[in-house]
Amino acid sequence: MKDNLTIFIKDTQKTINEKLMLYLDTLSMPFRLKESLYYSIEAGGKRLRPILMLATSNAFKGNDNKIYPAAMALEMIHTYSLIHDDLPAMDDDDYRRGKLTNHKKFDDATAILAGDGLLTESFRLIANSNEYTDEQKVYIISKLSEAAGVSGMVAGQILDIEAEAKNISIDELEKIHLLKTGKLFIFAMEIGAYLTDLNPSDRDLIKEFATKLGLIFQIQDDILDVIGDEAKIGKPVGSDQEKAKNTFPKILGIDETVAQKKRYQREAISILEKLNVEKSILIEFVHLFSDRDN
Amino acid sequence: MKDNLTIFIKDTQKTINEKLMLYLDTLSMPFRLKESLYYSIEAGGKRLRPILMLATSNAFKGNDNKIYPAAMALEMIHTYSLIHDDLPAMDDDDYRRGKLTNHKKFDDATAILAGDGLLTESFRLIANSNEYTDEQKVYIISKLSEAAGVSGMVAGQILDIEAEAKNISIDELEKIHLLKTGKLFIFAMEIGAYLTDLNPSDRDLIKEFATKLGLIFQIQDDILDVIGDEAKIGKPVGSDQEKAKNTFPKILGIDETVAQKKRYQREAISILEKLNVEKSILIEFVHLFSDRDN
Protein backbone atom coordinates (compact mmCIF):
# COMPACT_ATOMS: atom_id res chain seq x y z
CA MET A 1 0.00 0.00 0.00
CA LYS A 2 2.93 2.29 0.73
CA ASP A 3 4.09 1.52 -2.79
CA ASN A 4 0.75 2.61 -4.23
CA LEU A 5 1.08 5.90 -2.43
CA THR A 6 4.62 6.42 -3.67
CA ILE A 7 3.50 5.70 -7.23
CA PHE A 8 0.52 8.01 -6.89
CA ILE A 9 2.75 10.83 -5.60
CA LYS A 10 5.38 10.38 -8.33
CA ASP A 11 2.73 10.22 -11.06
CA THR A 12 0.97 13.31 -9.78
CA GLN A 13 4.23 15.24 -9.50
CA LYS A 14 5.13 14.31 -13.06
CA THR A 15 1.71 15.27 -14.42
CA ILE A 16 1.44 18.54 -12.54
CA ASN A 17 4.97 19.53 -13.60
CA GLU A 18 4.21 18.80 -17.24
CA LYS A 19 0.90 20.64 -17.12
CA LEU A 20 2.41 23.68 -15.43
CA MET A 21 5.18 23.94 -18.02
CA LEU A 22 2.72 23.46 -20.89
CA TYR A 23 0.52 26.16 -19.42
CA LEU A 24 3.37 28.63 -19.00
CA ASP A 25 4.25 27.97 -22.64
CA THR A 26 0.85 29.30 -23.69
CA LEU A 27 1.49 32.66 -22.01
CA SER A 28 3.23 35.35 -24.00
CA MET A 29 5.66 37.32 -21.83
CA PRO A 30 9.06 39.05 -21.92
CA PHE A 31 12.05 36.72 -22.03
CA ARG A 32 13.50 37.62 -18.63
CA LEU A 33 10.16 37.22 -16.89
CA LYS A 34 9.66 33.87 -18.59
CA GLU A 35 13.10 32.65 -17.51
CA SER A 36 12.38 33.68 -13.94
CA LEU A 37 8.93 32.04 -13.82
CA TYR A 38 10.18 28.83 -15.42
CA TYR A 39 13.12 28.74 -13.01
CA SER A 40 10.92 28.74 -9.94
CA ILE A 41 8.23 26.48 -11.34
CA GLU A 42 10.88 24.00 -12.51
CA ALA A 43 12.69 24.17 -9.16
CA GLY A 44 10.62 21.10 -8.38
CA GLY A 45 8.78 21.45 -5.15
CA LYS A 46 7.08 18.44 -3.63
CA ARG A 47 3.74 19.54 -5.15
CA LEU A 48 2.10 18.57 -1.86
CA ARG A 49 -0.90 20.83 -2.31
CA PRO A 50 -1.83 19.51 -5.77
CA ILE A 51 -1.21 15.97 -4.48
CA LEU A 52 -3.58 16.55 -1.56
CA MET A 53 -6.23 17.94 -3.89
CA LEU A 54 -5.94 14.96 -6.23
CA ALA A 55 -5.88 12.49 -3.34
CA THR A 56 -9.05 13.98 -1.88
CA SER A 57 -10.78 13.82 -5.23
CA ASN A 58 -9.63 10.21 -5.67
CA ALA A 59 -10.93 9.29 -2.23
CA PHE A 60 -14.36 10.46 -3.37
CA LYS A 61 -14.09 8.96 -6.87
CA GLY A 62 -13.62 12.30 -8.60
CA ASN A 63 -12.36 13.01 -12.11
CA ASP A 64 -8.68 14.04 -12.23
CA ASN A 65 -9.16 16.33 -15.24
CA LYS A 66 -11.47 18.53 -13.21
CA ILE A 67 -8.84 18.83 -10.49
CA TYR A 68 -5.75 19.82 -12.43
CA PRO A 69 -6.55 23.47 -13.30
CA ALA A 70 -7.36 24.26 -9.65
CA ALA A 71 -4.30 22.30 -8.51
CA MET A 72 -2.08 24.22 -10.95
CA ALA A 73 -3.44 27.58 -9.81
CA LEU A 74 -2.82 26.55 -6.21
CA GLU A 75 0.77 25.52 -6.94
CA MET A 76 1.36 28.84 -8.77
CA ILE A 77 0.16 30.69 -5.66
CA HIS A 78 2.39 28.56 -3.44
CA THR A 79 5.36 29.21 -5.74
CA TYR A 80 4.76 32.98 -5.75
CA SER A 81 4.66 32.93 -1.94
CA LEU A 82 8.03 31.16 -1.77
CA ILE A 83 9.63 33.62 -4.21
CA HIS A 84 8.46 36.63 -2.18
CA ASP A 85 9.18 34.91 1.15
CA ASP A 86 12.82 34.33 0.14
CA LEU A 87 13.43 38.01 -0.68
CA PRO A 88 16.03 39.93 1.39
CA ALA A 89 13.23 42.05 2.88
CA MET A 90 11.52 38.88 4.12
CA ASP A 91 13.38 35.65 5.03
CA ASP A 92 16.51 36.57 3.05
CA ASP A 93 17.28 33.06 1.85
CA ASP A 94 19.94 32.41 -0.80
CA TYR A 95 19.07 28.78 -1.39
CA ARG A 96 15.93 26.71 -1.60
CA ARG A 97 16.17 22.94 -2.04
CA GLY A 98 19.85 23.36 -2.87
CA LYS A 99 19.23 25.80 -5.74
CA LEU A 100 19.69 29.57 -5.74
CA THR A 101 16.51 31.40 -4.80
CA ASN A 102 14.83 33.39 -7.56
CA HIS A 103 16.19 36.79 -6.50
CA LYS A 104 19.74 35.37 -6.21
CA LYS A 105 19.52 33.77 -9.66
CA PHE A 106 17.98 36.91 -11.19
CA ASP A 107 17.52 40.02 -9.04
CA ASP A 108 15.08 41.38 -6.48
CA ALA A 109 12.98 43.33 -8.99
CA THR A 110 12.58 40.31 -11.25
CA ALA A 111 11.67 38.11 -8.28
CA ILE A 112 9.04 40.57 -7.06
CA LEU A 113 7.52 40.75 -10.55
CA ALA A 114 7.72 36.98 -11.10
CA GLY A 115 5.77 36.52 -7.86
CA ASP A 116 3.23 39.18 -8.79
CA GLY A 117 2.86 37.55 -12.20
CA LEU A 118 2.32 34.03 -10.86
CA LEU A 119 -0.25 35.27 -8.37
CA THR A 120 -2.18 37.16 -11.05
CA GLU A 121 -1.97 34.33 -13.59
CA SER A 122 -3.30 31.77 -11.11
CA PHE A 123 -6.68 33.52 -11.21
CA ARG A 124 -6.56 33.87 -15.00
CA LEU A 125 -5.93 30.14 -15.30
CA ILE A 126 -9.14 29.36 -13.40
CA ALA A 127 -11.18 32.03 -15.18
CA ASN A 128 -10.12 30.74 -18.61
CA SER A 129 -10.27 27.00 -17.88
CA ASN A 130 -12.50 24.76 -20.00
CA GLU A 131 -13.05 22.29 -17.15
CA TYR A 132 -15.43 24.34 -15.01
CA THR A 133 -18.82 25.97 -15.14
CA ASP A 134 -18.90 29.69 -14.37
CA GLU A 135 -20.35 28.85 -10.96
CA GLN A 136 -17.42 26.54 -10.20
CA LYS A 137 -14.90 29.12 -11.39
CA VAL A 138 -16.38 31.77 -9.11
CA TYR A 139 -16.40 29.36 -6.17
CA ILE A 140 -12.78 28.30 -6.71
CA ILE A 141 -11.56 31.89 -7.18
CA SER A 142 -13.46 33.06 -4.11
CA LYS A 143 -11.97 30.30 -1.93
CA LEU A 144 -8.46 30.63 -3.37
CA SER A 145 -8.33 34.40 -2.92
CA GLU A 146 -9.67 34.02 0.61
CA ALA A 147 -7.05 31.39 1.49
CA ALA A 148 -4.20 33.41 -0.04
CA GLY A 149 -5.33 36.93 0.88
CA VAL A 150 -5.18 39.33 3.81
CA SER A 151 -7.23 37.04 6.07
CA GLY A 152 -5.22 33.99 4.99
CA MET A 153 -1.67 33.38 3.84
CA VAL A 154 -0.66 37.05 3.66
CA ALA A 155 -1.94 37.52 7.22
CA GLY A 156 0.13 34.53 8.32
CA GLN A 157 3.26 35.97 6.75
CA ILE A 158 2.95 39.29 8.51
CA LEU A 159 2.12 37.68 11.88
CA ASP A 160 5.12 35.39 11.45
CA ILE A 161 7.43 38.36 10.86
CA GLU A 162 5.94 40.28 13.78
CA ALA A 163 6.38 37.29 16.09
CA GLU A 164 10.08 36.86 15.33
CA ALA A 165 12.29 37.26 18.38
CA LYS A 166 9.17 37.44 20.56
CA ASN A 167 7.93 34.80 22.95
CA ILE A 168 4.59 33.50 21.73
CA SER A 169 2.24 30.78 22.95
CA ILE A 170 1.43 27.50 21.25
CA ASP A 171 -2.01 28.90 20.37
CA GLU A 172 -0.42 31.88 18.65
CA LEU A 173 2.02 29.63 16.81
CA GLU A 174 -0.82 27.37 15.67
CA LYS A 175 -2.70 30.42 14.41
CA ILE A 176 0.29 31.61 12.38
CA HIS A 177 0.68 28.17 10.81
CA LEU A 178 -3.04 27.86 10.16
CA LEU A 179 -2.92 31.12 8.21
CA LYS A 180 0.48 30.75 6.59
CA THR A 181 0.28 27.16 5.38
CA GLY A 182 -2.95 25.65 6.69
CA LYS A 183 -5.27 27.80 4.60
CA LEU A 184 -3.81 26.53 1.32
CA PHE A 185 -3.89 22.93 2.58
CA ILE A 186 -7.54 23.41 3.49
CA PHE A 187 -8.23 24.96 0.09
CA ALA A 188 -6.56 21.97 -1.60
CA MET A 189 -8.70 19.39 0.16
CA GLU A 190 -11.90 21.42 0.21
CA ILE A 191 -11.78 22.00 -3.55
CA GLY A 192 -10.91 18.34 -4.12
CA ALA A 193 -14.09 17.51 -2.19
CA TYR A 194 -16.18 20.28 -3.78
CA LEU A 195 -15.35 19.19 -7.31
CA THR A 196 -16.45 15.65 -6.49
CA ASP A 197 -19.76 16.97 -5.17
CA LEU A 198 -19.10 15.82 -1.63
CA ASN A 199 -21.89 17.02 0.66
CA PRO A 200 -21.17 20.17 2.69
CA SER A 201 -21.04 18.49 6.12
CA ASP A 202 -18.46 15.94 4.96
CA ARG A 203 -16.63 18.82 3.28
CA ASP A 204 -16.42 20.50 6.69
CA LEU A 205 -14.84 17.34 8.10
CA ILE A 206 -12.31 17.38 5.27
CA LYS A 207 -11.43 20.97 6.14
CA GLU A 208 -10.92 20.03 9.79
CA PHE A 209 -8.74 17.15 8.71
CA ALA A 210 -6.70 19.42 6.39
CA THR A 211 -6.14 21.81 9.31
CA LYS A 212 -4.59 19.01 11.38
CA LEU A 213 -2.59 17.77 8.42
CA GLY A 214 -1.15 21.29 8.01
CA LEU A 215 -0.08 21.30 11.65
CA ILE A 216 1.50 17.85 11.30
CA PHE A 217 3.36 19.06 8.24
CA GLN A 218 4.61 22.13 10.07
CA ILE A 219 5.56 20.43 13.34
CA GLN A 220 7.59 17.85 11.42
CA ASP A 221 9.28 20.73 9.57
CA ASP A 222 10.29 22.17 12.91
CA ILE A 223 11.46 18.77 14.18
CA LEU A 224 13.61 18.24 11.08
CA ASP A 225 15.22 21.62 11.62
CA VAL A 226 16.45 20.30 14.98
CA ILE A 227 17.22 16.64 14.30
CA GLY A 228 17.09 16.33 10.49
CA ASP A 229 19.75 15.36 7.98
CA GLU A 230 21.10 18.45 6.17
CA ALA A 231 21.62 16.59 2.92
CA LYS A 232 17.96 15.55 2.93
CA ILE A 233 16.28 18.75 4.12
CA GLY A 234 18.39 20.87 1.74
CA LYS A 235 19.27 23.56 4.28
CA PRO A 236 21.46 23.75 7.39
CA VAL A 237 20.06 22.14 10.55
CA GLY A 238 19.29 24.83 13.14
CA SER A 239 18.56 27.58 10.63
CA ASP A 240 15.18 28.36 12.25
CA GLN A 241 16.90 28.88 15.57
CA GLU A 242 19.54 31.07 13.98
CA LYS A 243 16.79 33.29 12.53
CA ALA A 244 14.99 33.47 15.87
CA LYS A 245 11.97 31.81 14.22
CA ASN A 246 9.15 30.69 16.42
CA THR A 247 8.95 26.92 16.29
CA PHE A 248 7.29 24.14 18.26
CA PRO A 249 10.61 22.94 19.75
CA LYS A 250 11.49 26.49 20.82
CA ILE A 251 8.25 26.75 22.79
CA LEU A 252 7.77 23.13 23.91
CA GLY A 253 11.19 21.54 23.75
CA ILE A 254 11.87 18.64 21.38
CA ASP A 255 10.35 15.82 23.48
CA GLU A 256 7.05 17.60 24.04
CA THR A 257 7.04 18.59 20.36
CA VAL A 258 7.19 14.94 19.34
CA ALA A 259 4.35 14.19 21.78
CA GLN A 260 2.35 17.08 20.33
CA LYS A 261 2.81 15.68 16.85
CA LYS A 262 1.35 12.37 18.03
CA ARG A 263 -1.68 14.24 19.43
CA TYR A 264 -2.24 15.96 16.06
CA GLN A 265 -1.99 12.56 14.36
CA ARG A 266 -4.61 11.04 16.64
CA GLU A 267 -6.90 14.03 16.16
CA ALA A 268 -6.52 13.85 12.38
CA ILE A 269 -7.38 10.17 12.29
CA SER A 270 -10.36 10.55 14.60
CA ILE A 271 -11.78 13.21 12.24
CA LEU A 272 -11.42 10.82 9.32
CA GLU A 273 -13.30 8.12 11.24
CA LYS A 274 -16.44 10.24 11.00
CA LEU A 275 -16.30 10.12 7.19
CA ASN A 276 -18.24 7.29 5.54
CA VAL A 277 -15.92 6.86 2.60
CA GLU A 278 -12.81 4.96 1.59
CA LYS A 279 -10.16 6.90 3.48
CA SER A 280 -7.07 4.73 3.45
CA ILE A 281 -5.15 7.13 1.19
CA LEU A 282 -5.96 10.02 3.50
CA ILE A 283 -4.77 8.06 6.55
CA GLU A 284 -1.53 7.33 4.72
CA PHE A 285 -0.94 11.07 4.33
CA VAL A 286 -1.06 11.45 8.10
CA HIS A 287 1.82 8.98 8.41
CA LEU A 288 3.65 10.33 5.39
CA PHE A 289 3.60 13.89 6.74
CA SER A 290 4.53 12.75 10.27
CA ASP A 291 7.44 10.55 9.26
CA ARG A 292 8.94 12.42 6.32
CA ASP A 293 12.67 13.08 6.46
CA ASN A 294 12.71 16.03 4.04
CA MET B 1 -19.48 71.67 -19.49
CA LYS B 2 -16.02 71.73 -17.94
CA ASP B 3 -17.76 72.29 -14.63
CA ASN B 4 -19.89 69.19 -15.13
CA LEU B 5 -16.77 67.15 -15.70
CA THR B 6 -15.10 68.56 -12.60
CA ILE B 7 -18.18 67.72 -10.53
CA PHE B 8 -18.37 64.23 -12.01
CA ILE B 9 -14.71 63.60 -11.20
CA LYS B 10 -14.99 64.92 -7.64
CA ASP B 11 -18.15 62.93 -6.98
CA THR B 12 -16.64 59.76 -8.36
CA GLN B 13 -13.46 60.20 -6.34
CA LYS B 14 -15.48 60.71 -3.18
CA THR B 15 -17.68 57.70 -3.81
CA ILE B 16 -14.88 55.36 -4.79
CA ASN B 17 -12.83 56.42 -1.75
CA GLU B 18 -15.75 55.79 0.57
CA LYS B 19 -16.55 52.44 -1.00
CA LEU B 20 -12.93 51.29 -0.88
CA MET B 21 -12.62 52.16 2.82
CA LEU B 22 -15.94 50.51 3.62
CA TYR B 23 -14.84 47.41 1.76
CA LEU B 24 -11.49 47.21 3.55
CA ASP B 25 -13.40 47.50 6.82
CA THR B 26 -15.20 44.25 6.02
CA LEU B 27 -11.92 42.34 5.74
CA SER B 28 -10.46 40.82 8.86
CA MET B 29 -6.67 41.14 8.92
CA PRO B 30 -3.72 41.75 11.26
CA PHE B 31 -3.38 45.31 12.53
CA ARG B 32 -0.09 46.14 10.83
CA LEU B 33 -1.32 44.86 7.47
CA LYS B 34 -4.52 46.85 7.84
CA GLU B 35 -2.60 50.04 8.67
CA SER B 36 -0.42 49.55 5.63
CA LEU B 37 -3.32 48.85 3.24
CA TYR B 38 -5.36 51.77 4.55
CA TYR B 39 -2.35 54.05 4.27
CA SER B 40 -1.89 53.40 0.57
CA ILE B 41 -5.58 53.31 -0.28
CA GLU B 42 -6.12 56.57 1.62
CA ALA B 43 -3.09 58.19 -0.01
CA GLY B 44 -5.66 59.55 -2.42
CA GLY B 45 -4.70 58.89 -5.97
CA LYS B 46 -6.63 60.56 -8.76
CA ARG B 47 -8.78 57.43 -9.20
CA LEU B 48 -8.46 57.93 -12.96
CA ARG B 49 -9.13 54.31 -13.83
CA PRO B 50 -12.40 54.09 -11.86
CA ILE B 51 -13.39 57.48 -13.26
CA LEU B 52 -12.79 56.27 -16.82
CA MET B 53 -14.84 53.15 -16.17
CA LEU B 54 -17.72 55.18 -14.76
CA ALA B 55 -17.50 57.74 -17.54
CA THR B 56 -17.66 55.03 -20.18
CA SER B 57 -20.65 53.46 -18.50
CA ASN B 58 -22.33 56.87 -18.26
CA ALA B 59 -21.71 57.56 -21.94
CA PHE B 60 -23.66 54.40 -22.70
CA LYS B 61 -26.36 55.00 -20.09
CA GLY B 62 -25.10 52.30 -17.73
CA ASN B 63 -25.92 51.74 -14.07
CA ASP B 64 -23.25 53.06 -11.68
CA ASN B 65 -23.89 50.35 -9.08
CA LYS B 66 -22.82 47.70 -11.55
CA ILE B 67 -19.58 49.55 -12.15
CA TYR B 68 -18.27 50.17 -8.67
CA PRO B 69 -17.10 46.67 -7.67
CA ALA B 70 -15.05 46.32 -10.88
CA ALA B 71 -13.77 49.89 -10.47
CA MET B 72 -12.71 49.18 -6.88
CA ALA B 73 -10.92 45.98 -7.86
CA LEU B 74 -9.12 47.89 -10.59
CA GLU B 75 -8.04 50.64 -8.20
CA MET B 76 -6.78 48.01 -5.74
CA ILE B 77 -4.65 46.48 -8.49
CA HIS B 78 -3.35 49.92 -9.45
CA THR B 79 -2.52 50.67 -5.80
CA TYR B 80 -0.66 47.36 -5.36
CA SER B 81 1.38 48.12 -8.47
CA LEU B 82 2.42 51.51 -7.07
CA ILE B 83 3.43 50.00 -3.71
CA HIS B 84 5.64 47.38 -5.39
CA ASP B 85 6.93 49.84 -7.99
CA ASP B 86 8.15 52.22 -5.26
CA LEU B 87 10.22 49.51 -3.49
CA PRO B 88 14.01 49.93 -3.28
CA ALA B 89 14.45 46.95 -5.62
CA MET B 90 12.28 48.70 -8.22
CA ASP B 91 12.02 52.50 -8.58
CA ASP B 92 13.27 53.19 -5.04
CA ASP B 93 10.98 56.16 -4.38
CA ASP B 94 10.68 57.66 -0.90
CA TYR B 95 7.71 59.88 -1.68
CA ARG B 96 4.53 59.63 -3.71
CA ARG B 97 2.24 62.62 -3.99
CA GLY B 98 4.17 64.29 -1.18
CA LYS B 99 3.61 61.43 1.27
CA LEU B 100 6.08 58.74 2.31
CA THR B 101 5.81 55.64 0.15
CA ASN B 102 4.45 52.53 1.84
CA HIS B 103 7.81 50.88 2.48
CA LYS B 104 9.24 54.11 3.94
CA LYS B 105 6.24 54.52 6.23
CA PHE B 106 6.30 50.83 7.25
CA ASP B 107 9.06 48.57 5.92
CA ASP B 108 9.87 46.61 2.78
CA ALA B 109 8.36 43.34 4.00
CA THR B 110 5.09 45.02 4.95
CA ALA B 111 4.94 46.83 1.62
CA ILE B 112 5.53 43.61 -0.33
CA LEU B 113 2.79 41.87 1.64
CA ALA B 114 0.39 44.82 1.40
CA GLY B 115 0.81 44.73 -2.38
CA ASP B 116 0.35 40.96 -2.51
CA GLY B 117 -2.73 41.31 -0.33
CA LEU B 118 -4.37 44.05 -2.43
CA LEU B 119 -3.73 42.10 -5.62
CA THR B 120 -5.28 38.93 -4.17
CA GLU B 121 -8.22 40.74 -2.61
CA SER B 122 -9.10 42.49 -5.87
CA PHE B 123 -10.11 39.13 -7.33
CA ARG B 124 -11.98 38.14 -4.17
CA LEU B 125 -13.97 41.37 -4.33
CA ILE B 126 -15.23 40.51 -7.83
CA ALA B 127 -15.85 36.84 -7.00
CA ASN B 128 -17.93 37.78 -3.93
CA SER B 129 -19.79 40.78 -5.37
CA ASN B 130 -23.60 40.79 -5.39
CA GLU B 131 -23.75 42.99 -8.50
CA TYR B 132 -22.75 40.45 -11.12
CA THR B 133 -23.86 37.17 -12.59
CA ASP B 134 -21.29 34.36 -12.48
CA GLU B 135 -20.71 34.87 -16.21
CA GLN B 136 -19.92 38.57 -15.64
CA LYS B 137 -17.59 37.76 -12.74
CA VAL B 138 -15.64 35.29 -14.83
CA TYR B 139 -15.41 37.77 -17.70
CA ILE B 140 -14.20 40.60 -15.45
CA ILE B 141 -11.66 38.40 -13.64
CA SER B 142 -10.37 37.01 -16.92
CA LYS B 143 -9.88 40.49 -18.39
CA LEU B 144 -8.45 41.98 -15.19
CA SER B 145 -5.91 39.20 -14.71
CA GLU B 146 -4.94 39.43 -18.37
CA ALA B 147 -4.43 43.22 -18.14
CA ALA B 148 -2.45 42.99 -14.89
CA GLY B 149 -0.54 39.76 -15.54
CA VAL B 150 2.59 38.57 -17.30
CA SER B 151 1.33 39.64 -20.74
CA GLY B 152 0.13 42.99 -19.37
CA MET B 153 1.21 45.29 -16.58
CA VAL B 154 3.83 42.96 -15.10
CA ALA B 155 5.37 42.58 -18.58
CA GLY B 156 5.45 46.37 -18.92
CA GLN B 157 7.24 46.74 -15.59
CA ILE B 158 9.99 44.32 -16.50
CA LEU B 159 10.46 45.79 -19.98
CA ASP B 160 10.63 49.25 -18.43
CA ILE B 161 13.38 48.14 -16.04
CA GLU B 162 15.29 46.38 -18.82
CA ALA B 163 15.09 49.46 -21.04
CA GLU B 164 16.57 51.81 -18.43
CA ALA B 165 19.83 53.38 -19.53
CA LYS B 166 19.34 51.90 -23.02
CA ASN B 167 18.41 53.76 -26.17
CA ILE B 168 15.02 52.58 -27.32
CA SER B 169 12.75 53.60 -30.21
CA ILE B 170 9.39 55.34 -29.97
CA ASP B 171 7.70 52.07 -30.93
CA GLU B 172 9.40 50.29 -28.05
CA LEU B 173 8.47 53.09 -25.65
CA GLU B 174 4.85 52.97 -26.82
CA LYS B 175 4.83 49.21 -26.24
CA ILE B 176 6.12 49.60 -22.68
CA HIS B 177 3.46 52.21 -21.92
CA LEU B 178 0.74 50.13 -23.56
CA LEU B 179 1.61 47.23 -21.24
CA LYS B 180 2.48 49.18 -18.12
CA THR B 181 -0.43 51.62 -18.01
CA GLY B 182 -2.45 51.20 -21.20
CA LYS B 183 -3.74 47.72 -20.38
CA LEU B 184 -5.46 48.89 -17.19
CA PHE B 185 -6.91 51.94 -18.99
CA ILE B 186 -8.25 49.63 -21.67
CA PHE B 187 -9.68 47.30 -19.03
CA ALA B 188 -11.39 50.26 -17.35
CA MET B 189 -13.15 51.41 -20.50
CA GLU B 190 -13.81 47.97 -21.92
CA ILE B 191 -15.52 46.80 -18.73
CA GLY B 192 -17.47 50.06 -18.54
CA ALA B 193 -18.73 49.27 -22.04
CA TYR B 194 -19.23 45.54 -21.38
CA LEU B 195 -21.35 46.13 -18.30
CA THR B 196 -23.61 48.45 -20.32
CA ASP B 197 -24.03 45.75 -22.98
CA LEU B 198 -22.33 47.78 -25.68
CA ASN B 199 -21.97 45.70 -28.83
CA PRO B 200 -18.55 44.08 -29.41
CA SER B 201 -17.54 46.20 -32.42
CA ASP B 202 -18.17 49.45 -30.55
CA ARG B 203 -16.36 47.89 -27.60
CA ASP B 204 -13.33 47.43 -29.84
CA LEU B 205 -13.47 51.13 -30.73
CA ILE B 206 -13.57 51.97 -27.03
CA LYS B 207 -10.46 49.83 -26.49
CA GLU B 208 -8.65 51.63 -29.32
CA PHE B 209 -9.67 54.95 -27.81
CA ALA B 210 -8.45 53.86 -24.35
CA THR B 211 -5.10 52.92 -25.87
CA LYS B 212 -4.66 56.45 -27.22
CA LEU B 213 -5.86 57.96 -23.98
CA GLY B 214 -3.20 55.97 -22.13
CA LEU B 215 -0.51 57.34 -24.41
CA ILE B 216 -1.80 60.88 -23.97
CA PHE B 217 -1.73 60.38 -20.21
CA GLN B 218 1.83 59.10 -20.33
CA ILE B 219 3.22 61.65 -22.76
CA GLN B 220 1.82 64.45 -20.61
CA ASP B 221 3.46 62.80 -17.59
CA ASP B 222 6.78 62.96 -19.40
CA ILE B 223 6.19 66.58 -20.46
CA LEU B 224 5.39 67.60 -16.87
CA ASP B 225 8.62 66.00 -15.69
CA VAL B 226 10.45 68.46 -17.96
CA ILE B 227 8.37 71.65 -17.74
CA GLY B 228 5.98 71.01 -14.82
CA ASP B 229 5.53 72.78 -11.50
CA GLU B 230 7.13 70.76 -8.67
CA ALA B 231 4.50 71.84 -6.16
CA LYS B 232 1.77 70.54 -8.45
CA ILE B 233 3.33 67.29 -9.68
CA GLY B 234 4.46 66.35 -6.15
CA LYS B 235 7.99 65.30 -7.12
CA PRO B 236 11.13 67.06 -8.34
CA VAL B 237 11.15 68.18 -11.99
CA GLY B 238 13.72 66.19 -13.95
CA SER B 239 13.48 63.06 -11.81
CA ASP B 240 12.88 60.83 -14.85
CA GLN B 241 16.08 62.12 -16.44
CA GLU B 242 17.99 61.58 -13.23
CA LYS B 243 16.87 57.95 -13.15
CA ALA B 244 17.79 57.44 -16.82
CA LYS B 245 14.12 56.64 -17.53
CA ASN B 246 13.05 56.34 -21.12
CA THR B 247 10.66 59.17 -21.89
CA PHE B 248 9.16 60.78 -24.98
CA PRO B 249 11.26 63.97 -24.53
CA LYS B 250 14.45 61.92 -24.17
CA ILE B 251 13.81 60.23 -27.51
CA LEU B 252 12.04 63.02 -29.43
CA GLY B 253 13.03 66.25 -27.72
CA ILE B 254 10.40 68.41 -26.02
CA ASP B 255 9.04 70.18 -29.14
CA GLU B 256 8.47 66.99 -31.08
CA THR B 257 6.97 65.43 -27.93
CA VAL B 258 4.35 68.18 -27.80
CA ALA B 259 3.64 67.61 -31.50
CA GLN B 260 3.32 63.87 -30.87
CA LYS B 261 0.82 64.53 -28.11
CA LYS B 262 -1.31 66.52 -30.58
CA ARG B 263 -1.20 63.59 -33.00
CA TYR B 264 -2.42 61.21 -30.28
CA GLN B 265 -5.22 63.67 -29.47
CA ARG B 266 -6.35 63.81 -33.10
CA GLU B 267 -6.21 60.03 -33.39
CA ALA B 268 -8.22 59.59 -30.17
CA ILE B 269 -10.94 61.97 -31.35
CA SER B 270 -11.14 60.41 -34.80
CA ILE B 271 -11.75 57.00 -33.16
CA LEU B 272 -14.60 58.50 -31.12
CA GLU B 273 -16.17 59.92 -34.26
CA LYS B 274 -16.91 56.37 -35.41
CA LEU B 275 -19.06 55.73 -32.33
CA ASN B 276 -22.78 56.49 -32.67
CA VAL B 277 -23.32 57.58 -29.08
CA GLU B 278 -23.17 60.66 -26.92
CA LYS B 279 -19.42 61.08 -26.55
CA SER B 280 -18.89 64.58 -25.23
CA ILE B 281 -17.66 63.35 -21.85
CA LEU B 282 -15.12 61.08 -23.55
CA ILE B 283 -13.86 63.94 -25.71
CA GLU B 284 -13.42 66.01 -22.58
CA PHE B 285 -11.12 63.35 -21.16
CA VAL B 286 -8.84 63.76 -24.16
CA HIS B 287 -8.43 67.42 -23.29
CA LEU B 288 -8.26 66.82 -19.57
CA PHE B 289 -5.46 64.27 -19.94
CA SER B 290 -3.59 66.44 -22.46
CA ASP B 291 -3.74 69.66 -20.49
CA ARG B 292 -3.42 68.45 -16.89
CA ASP B 293 -0.77 70.13 -14.78
CA ASN B 294 -0.40 67.33 -12.21
From TrEMBL, chains A, B:
InterPro entries: Isoprenoid_synthase_dom_sf, Polyprenyl_synt, Polyprenyl_synt_CS, Prenyl_diphosphate_synthase
Gene3D superfamilies per the UniProt record, alphabetical: Farnesyl Diphosphate Synthase (1.10.600.10)
One MF annotation (Gene Ontology) recorded for this entry: (2E,6E)-farnesyl diphosphate synthase activity
SUPFAM superfamilies: Terpenoid synthases
Catalytic function, reaction form: isopentenyl diphosphate + (2E)-geranyl diphosphate = (2E,6E)-farnesyl diphosphate + diphosphate
Keyword list, A-Z: Isoprene biosynthesis, Magnesium, Metal-binding, Transferase
Record-given protein name: Farnesyl diphosphate synthase
Transmembrane regions listed in the UniProt entry: none
Top-level lineage group: Bacteria
Cofactor section: Mg(2+)
Organism: Saliterribacillus persicus
EC number: 2.5.1.10
GO CC, alphabetical: cytoplasm
PROSITE patterns: POLYPRENYL_SYNTHASE_1, POLYPRENYL_SYNTHASE_2
Family membership noted in the UniProt record: Belongs to the FPP/GGPP synthase family.
Biological processes, Gene Ontology terms: terpenoid biosynthetic process
